[in-house]
Amino acid sequence: MIKIGHKEIGKHAKPFIIAEMSGNHNQSLERALHLVDLAAEAGVDALKLQTYTPDTITLDVHTGEFFIQDDANLWKGNSLYNLYKEAYTPWEWHEAIFNRAKEHGLLAFSSPFDETAVDFLETLNVPAYKIASFENVDIPLIRKVARTGKPIIISTGMATASELDEAVRAARAEGNHQIILLKCTSTYPATPANSNLATIPHMRELFGTEIGLSDHTMGVGVSVAAVTLGATVIEKHFTTSRADGGVDSAFSMEPHELKMLVEETERAWQSLGQIQYGPTEAEKDSTKFRRSLYIGKDLKAGDVLTGENLRNVRPGLGLPTKYYDLVLGKTVKQDVKKGTPLSWELLL
């Protein structure tokens, strides 16, 4: 079991829920702090930021491959530089945001996008690091994070099995075995049909790590399903209201949805239980309402059981119904009133 701060992560703990703020602060520190408050009210375990600047993540170029022209892209019409300028969280805000999270008892950490971001986050003593899907092939960054000795959460969007193997091996080679892989589909929003959650148990077996889900679908259904397949961490983007706009608002949860995510994933986890056959303790009282064999008419000693005077009914205090054919034609050895549960002691 892995621990992030005071929270345990594993099948014996309820799902660890991460609220991803991303760029939904819309360049307002006041809004960012309000988002922290809303995340705490929803009951999440952790708040996550993204730590970069436009200049640490791309080049100040606004043409060619640096300009988003794909009609299916949520951010079409933006250059990468301008998009990240709009979305980034100013580094001078991090401490205030993290402190607000701590006031609420929330864990707070971030996704660094280059080595300078790791150095900066270390000054804030973050309890863990997240590697974003687009950085899961950045082996130098993964090594840098691994050397901090803190848990590493790696989103797996777009990565092949061999690329993930390289990432996991890179972290372990630095002596860090506190690795959590998040199944992720890097489309925004993603669809349930493109989520391929069946990969979750396979990934756990293949890499021997904790597995979770970075979920870009709408609603809570996919996250709940992931928990039933063994996901122990769920990450979701959130905002105050999708109507407020912002770079990630279209696929972000609103506060009431985030609260539902916390509640429903915990219910899904509770439902897993253990392999169980036979009545549970809670079911034992209900067994009396099964069907069983009862005397259906008043009988005298020496009467024969027939299809008319022997009934298969509720409750379940008589002989099991599997003995019906066996006892037909047998004789009762004493007077028996209608409504008496049939027992072997009544028969000759």
Automatic annotation (TrEMBL):
<dbReference type="Pfam" id="PF03102">
    <property type="entry name" value="NeuB"/>
</dbReference>
<dbReference type="InterPro" id="IPR013974">
    <property type="entry name" value="SAF"/>
</dbReference>
<dbReference type="Pfam" id="PF08666">
    <property type="entry name" value="SAF"/>
</dbReference>
<protein>
    <submittedName>
        <fullName>Pseudaminic acid synthase</fullName>
        <ecNumber>2.5.1.97</ecNumber>
    </submittedName>
</protein>
<dbReference type="InterPro" id="IPR006190">
    <property type="entry name" value="SAF_AFP_Neu5Ac"/>
</dbReference>
<dbReference type="GO" id="GO:0016740">
    <property type="term" value="F:transferase activity"/>
</dbReference>
<dbReference type="InterPro" id="IPR051690">
    <property type="entry name" value="PseI-like"/>
</dbReference>
<feature type="domain" description="AFP-like">
    <location>
        <begin position="292"/>
        <end position="348"/>
    </location>
</feature>
<dbReference type="InterPro" id="IPR013785">
    <property type="entry name" value="Aldolase_TIM"/>
</dbReference>
<dbReference type="InterPro" id="IPR013132">
    <property type="entry name" value="PseI/NeuA/B-like_N"/>
</dbReference>
<dbReference type="InterPro" id="IPR036732">
    <property type="entry name" value="AFP_Neu5c_C_sf"/>
</dbReference>
<dbReference type="InterPro" id="IPR020030">
    <property type="entry name" value="Pseudaminic_synth_PseI"/>
</dbReference>
<dbReference type="InterPro" id="IPR057736">
    <property type="entry name" value="SAF_PseI/NeuA/NeuB"/>
</dbReference>
<keyword id="KW-0808">Transferase</keyword>
